[in-house]
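Morning!

This is the sequence you dropped in the shared folder:
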Amino acid sequence: MKENFLGVDVCSDNYEQLTVSLLNDIESDKKSFIVAINPEKIMKAQEDEKLLNLLNQASYQIPDGIGIIVASKMKGGKIRQRVTGIDMMLKLCETASEHNKKIFLYGAKPGIADEAKMSLEKQFPAIQIVGTINGYEKNQQVIQQTINDSKADIVFVALGSPTQEYWIVNNMNTLYPSVYQGVGGSFDVISGRVQRAPEIFQKFGLEWLYRLLKEPWRWKRQLILPKFLLKALRRS
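The structure's back. Tokens below.
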């Protein structure tokens, strides 16, 4: 099931339901595309029809933002759990290691994907990460051939949003893997180069507050949340 916020679809499924669906997609050779949705992306899409269409092209739009949960509750929807991009990636890594599925890491600065690979291999000893390419490789033929030759089932793309999502929709139908997820800066966090917000902030959906405390100059970006909620409720 999906709910719609200002023209953008958002899935109401939790991690477990999404993982079951994605595993079925791999088994049936069905192409799937995961995009993380937050109020900032939805508000940007109001002024960018191409971005709006891109977000709605995804197979699974995961609710990565406390504002989505608040808006869903206020509108009488059923979305009650955040599904963050990095945690969806980790859940898929766990599932892949349990079901003998192969993973490819594409993106980030040189060396970061390799460090993320080593970290994931420590966390999930049975995981099969069959290749990496950094985000500075410009030869699309090399990228495509390397991914195809790896015979991966899942590709995590860390090129920043919306660049990674545009890359996915432009390439997924000519590539071997079934599942594609844009993961932003997740490789940096998994590799240990960037520290994630403490668990107490994650638990209550307050990563935005942690970032604001560390980077107070970001305060203007936080004004998007009340603007989104007001606009979403007026449309309901």
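Headline: DSSP finds 13 helices and eight strands in the chain.

More detail when I'm at my desk.
O.
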